[in-house]
Amino acid sequence: MSDAVHAHEDHGHHAHPSGIMRWLTTTNHKDIGTLYLWFSLIMLFSAGSMALMIRAELFQPGLQLTQPDFFNQLTTMHGLIMIFGVIMPAFSGFANWQVPLMLGAPDMAFPRMNNWAFWILPVAAILLLSSFVLPGGAVAGGWTMYPPLYIQGGISYDLTILAVHIMGLSSIMGSINIITTILNMRAPGLTLMKMPLFVWTWLITAYLLIATMPVLAGAVTMLLTDRNFGTHFFNAAGGGDPVMFQHIFWFFAHPEVYILILPAFGIVSQVIPTFSRKPLFGYASMVYATASIAILSFIVWAHHMFTVGMPVAAQLFFMLSTMLIAVPTGVKVFNWTATMWKGSLTFETPMLFAIAFVCLFTIGGFSGLVLAIAPVDIQLHDTYYVVAHFHYVLVSGALFSIFAGIYYWLPKWTGHMYDERLGKWHFWLSVIGMNIVFFPMHFLGLAGMPRRIPDYSLQFTEFNQIATVGAFMFGFSQLIFLVVVLKAIRGGVKAPAQVWEGAEGLEWTVPSPAPYHTFVTAPVVK
Ligand code: HEM
Ligand SMILES: [Cu+2]
């Protein structure tokens, strides 16, 4: 009894450790958000340099800089790290910083689990990156991990499976935390249908993660036992089926692509109303559209495998269900446009990235619809057209929304305004560079250039050269972003609590920088 009382008194406000121990042991949602965001930025530069090596090799036909096997390691690790190491952790960083602030909650529901969810990520990153120096090099079978390649490879394949398990565990812990926080820790009066859209999109994303990460874990565990323990799940010689892997993998990975985009929809839905000085058009329809996209994402997976040979009825089902996703997505694009309609618009950097998101993500959505047409996809599958598609949705979609969100909330996080002039330079160089890299890839794909090859036929040279020039332009302009962030951390014009004139939400009621502990007593929302 007295022990319990003692323990209760002890908990709370003693001085928290400083230096490295502050970060290792932190249970503070803002610290953990910052850790996620820095981790993501470091991974962006490491996977980004792999992309530049890939593009440098592809500047000319023939083999210049890399051997084919190393080239395949670069494309595989680039994809794996960009998805699991950059986009997902960045969104977790936003969730940690913003969900409690937007809900008027003092912290996340499970602060210690929050600490674990982050700190196992660098372990996974080290497993992945260090495999470059192991015998046989890093994994080279593509981020999609298809057998038989993934059954045949060396030790790095086992390490990658372990890394995928760790990253999945981190996502599940993060999601449990986010769902519990949103459902239980909202300020009095903040009903679900009053929540900021960013919180809504993360709530739905967290459910997607909990539903699909175990599927991925199952798939890679079966790979592991096929590799090491004599099972034959995916080995045709032993009665297994490699196509079964593709079904299991894409049952995870198509919802996964929405995990990579729903929080982006959330960020853009915060930024556009602010700089339009109007409330979001169609709030409720945005919530329902997000939920519909999430539900539909479970029934379209085989659009990634039209070429494996499936009954016509199945082809039709997956083609039409995929096209159905364009309806709620169209609702969203309509609502963002309608929010801007007759608003008093201003074009600060967050808004520029958000507008670019709406325009360019839509291009990616359209090329997705083209790919969804089964007979067309049989021509375009595994060509550069697919590469163009997913970079439009992931770079000008997910990544641009992350930039929009960083510029939008950086003054709240650091207490300083970022350098608007440098921000605009970063925006324009990124948006122009990005289109120079990826737009020509549509033409390359239509002309038949396969993806994942280090060498190509002569007729593809010009578009590849253009793409490589754009890639270096895009890549190096990210250094401007790094400078902007560092400058804002070190100083600059002091940011007021209400950073943006038109912004609404509880995060703008606390000072900038947001104090270490906020909403110790809950605000009341009317
Ligand atoms: C209207 C929405 C969308 C449609 C109709 C669509 C459709 C498709 C189809 C049919 C493919 C398969 C192409 C092939 O391999 O032959 C594909 C590939 C892909 N999509 Fe989408 N998509 C949409 C949105 C998205 C979004 C939002 C993301 C991510 C943020 C995304 C990421 C990807 C990726 C990464 C691949 C390539 C997977 C791989 O083979 O490595 N897509 N998409
Ligand atoms: Cu898909």
TrEMBL record:
This protein's pathway: Energy metabolism; oxidative phosphorylation
Record GO biological process: electron transport coupled proton transport; oxidative phosphorylation; respiratory electron transport chain
Cytochrome oxidase subunit I profile domain mapped to chain residues: 23-526
Listed Pfam families: COX1
InterPro entries (UniProt xref): Cyt_c_oxase-like_su1_dom, Cyt_c_oxase-like_su1_sf, Cyt_C_Oxase_1, Cyt_c_oxase_su1_dom, Cyt_c_oxidase_su1_bac
Cellular localization per UniProt: Cell membrane; Membrane
Primary location class: membrane
Ranges that cross the membrane: 35-56, 76-95, 116-139, 159-185, 197-224, 244-268, 280-302, 308-331, 352-374, 386-410, 422-443, 463-486
Enzyme class: translocase
Membrane topology: Multi-pass membrane protein
Protein name: Cytochrome c oxidase subunit 1
PROSITE patterns attached to this UniProt entry: COX1
Family indicated by similarity: Belongs to the heme-copper respiratory oxidase family.
